[in-house]
Write a structure and sequence with these properties.
- The chain is of the alpha/beta class.
- It contains six helices and twelve strands.
- The chain has a six-stranded parallel beta sheet, sandwiched between helices.
- Helix 3 (76-89) links the parallel strand 4 and strand 5 (93-96).
- Helix 4 (176-186) packs across helix 5.
- The longest helix has 14 residues, at 76-89.
- It is elongated.
Amino acid sequence: MTLLLLAGTGEAQEIARALAEKGVRVIASLAGGSRVGAELPVPTRKGGFGGEAGFRRFLEEEGITAVLDATHPFAHRISGRTARVCRALSMPYCQLLRPPWEAGRGDKWHEITSEEALAPLVAPGEVVFLATGRQTLERFANLGHARIICRQIYPPEGPFPFPRGAFLVGHPPFSVEGEEALFRELGVDWVVVKNAGGEAPRAKLVAARRLGIRVAMIARPPQPDAPRVATVDEALAWVAAL
């Protein structure tokens, strides 16, 4: 068996380590926009496949016999294409999709379906903290009436793309206490996140709840109709059963 592991998440790193220890032949793939995964203990390719035809060609040339999709919940185009191709080839496919976050007592969440939908909710002059990553920043261009702070892990490669905004470099993991202190210092009125789920990124949500800050929660895009698991252990069990 040769397994293709679509990576880019912490779960993918755990899976790669576990399968490497078991001696399973794994090839990991990281999308072109990802900067995660240099530490993966399996052969790793980076970049796109060149569309659906290129992906099919890769599967054939590398002798791939199964695909485990452990990409980000918002990498829906990759997941959709992969599930579609695997179905056409009768190749085993499974998506690891962590459960989404759900609002609890004290949370002030506003679910939105896109980044552009935030602007009508934000009053002029309010401070908006973006924890959504650099790749979708341009979708917030209609927030010119607010003060925008976009946190990213790596130093910016250029100036902020529109007025009244600034980058903030921060390195995870982030603690609840650290997030609280940061939000107070910045005078944050809104925290914007994608509903990625998981424990590590939850600190900012807890901090927002404690401070009474409103959260704009971007809903997940549609996922493929395909076999799915929710945990690393379930994903490893799926591989073991192949």
